[in-house]
Write a structure and sequence with these properties.
By secondary structure, the protein is mostly beta strands. It contains one helix and 31 strands.
């Protein structure tokens, strides 16, 4: 009996540690084993922490809408290079918060902020019923931790005086904290020093577009200017817009569009910004792993830049995302930076298992795909390994930096209908960081899952 208990305890510990140390390597989307919507990123102690919401497939038999968001808990992820992410597991769930309706599955977009060594995690959810009648609307609660990874202890009641979704907290240089949230419009109120109670009456932020849904506020300050950024439906689906002002509560002046509507037609977008190692990044979401259902979303990152007058340059969503990719890790060229207009395409490896990712397809001579920022380190590479498939056989040339750049390797893909891993010798070249360009030397179709150097 005792032995059985010990075995179960060890198995539990292994499972727990396994979860803690799960590394998820990525371009866009950045988390590749679960849906991650509404990504709020924060820099704590020199590391980037990601607090997304967690879309799931709607469970059967729970009387839930099949065509709507379904979210039961929150994970936190961290990364030091924006490329390798560690999943620290569930930090708050609908079953762990006393006031939350544990049958609601509506743990929507969260935020987290540090004050005096404590981490305050803000989340919206539906309240449980105290009189047998369903409660309508969302409240916003707080869970507090000593470390960004948790454990987070939820407060027993939501914040009084706030009804709405998409909490966002900003602490100004004078120490005053502000809570922003949405419910059709965008609202703001001061927070008390304890970060748990309002310290002023909520006000509706003025001068924002009067028509079309506005939600998901994210406020940040740069060079004394305050940027109120938010998704807004100007046309048919959301795009990211912003207004600028001289104080956290406004007045704000509408200034521009940060990201246009999703090319995949994802109705929502939700975002956050960080400045990490002197580069600004935009975190946002798309439905890349769920092309047919836009309520299953995935977090992405792209770099962002400011103009000299402080306005924000438009961010074009990319597959490549950000960060260096080690040459010795799988380089998924379907997450390309650039590609030739003709003769290349991208498709899911298996449309019924979207988390398996994509493949790159070449079907013309001289068609090419470029993948930027591959770190070859300082050691010579002996071989390149390519996972590929080609019914008639093909030849791929792997070049450095540009389409006619130095030839690193030529890889002959044998005829066949199955995926094969092919090794080829790598020519000498200057190590360091390079753009990788894969060129098809024949017109026959070649599909590539990934390649890596050894
Ligand atoms: O994730 C559920 C809701 O969709 C969020 O709260 C909104 O911002 C939108 O992204």
């Amino acid at each position: 009996m005792r032995l059985k208990f010990n075995l179960i305890a060890i198995a539990g510990l292994v499972l727990f540690l396994g979860l803690e140390s799960l590394h998820l390597c990525a371009q866009n989307p950045i988390i590749r084993n679960q849906f991650t919507a509404d990504p709020t990123a924060r820099v704590f102690n020199g590391k980037v922490y990601l607090f997304p919401s967690h879309d799931i497939l709607t469970p059967e038999g729970k009387n839930l809408r099949k065509d709507w968001f379904c979210m039961a808990d929150y994970h936190v992820f961290s990364s030091e290079n924006l490329t390798n992410w560690t999943d620290h597991g569930v930090i708050v769930s609908q079953n762990s918060v006393p006031w939350v309706d544990s049958t609601g599955y509506n743990m929507w977009a969260p935020d987290c902020i540090e004050r005096n060594g404590k981490y305050y995690f803000y989340f919206p959810a539906g309240r449980n019923s105290t009189d047998g009648k369903a409660r309508r609307g969302f409240s916003i609660g707080v869970a507090v931790a000593d470390k960004p990874e948790g454990p987070y202890i939820p407060q027993s009641e939501p914040i009084k005086g706030v009804m709405g979704i998409d909490p966002n907290v900003f602490i100004d240089t004078d120490g005053q904290a502000y809570l922003y949230w949405s419910m059709g419009n965008i609202y703001v109120a001061k927070l008390k020093e304890n970060m748990l109670e309002l310290d002023s009456e909520p006000v509706t932020i003025a001068n924002l577009p009067p028509k079309g849904m506005k939600e998901g506020p994210f406020l940040f300050e740069r060079n004394g200017k305050y940027y109120l950024t938010f998704p807004h439906v100007e046309n048919t689906i959301e795009r990211l817009e912003y207004a600028m002002g001289d104080s956290p509560m406004g007045p704000f002046k509408m200034t521009g569009v940060i990201m246009d509507e999703s090319p995949m037609n994802c109705w929502t977008n939700h975002h956050s910004f960080i400045n990490y190692n002197n580069q600004w990044y935009l975190f946002y979401h798309q439905n890349a792993y769920s092309p047919k259902f836009d309520k299953n979303r995935s977090a992405c990152i792209d770099s962002m830049f400011f103009n000299a007058d402080g306005t924000i340059q438009k961010v074009i969503p990319t597959h490549r995302g950000v960060g260096l990719t080690k040459a010795t890790e799988k380089i998924e060229i379907d997450r390309y930076s650039l590609k030739s207009e003709a003769g290349t395409s991208i498709d899911l490896l298996d449309s019924s298992k979207t988390f398996d990712g994509w493949k790159a397809i070449f079907n013309a001579k001289d068609a090419w795909i470029q993948y930027n920022a591959v770190d070859f380190g300082t050691k010579k590479m002996a071989k390149v390994e390519v996972m590929a498939k080609s019914e008639n056989g093909g030849i791929l040339q792997i070049r450095a930096d540009k389409v006619d750049g130095p030839l690193l390797a030529e890889v002959k893909i044998p005829k066949g209908t199955e995926w094969v891993k092919i090794d080829s010798k790598v020519n000498d070249f200057q190590q360091g960081t390079h753009q990788l360009v894969v060129v098809s030397a024949k017109s026959d179709m070649v599909e590539v899952d990934w390649l890596r150097f050894k």
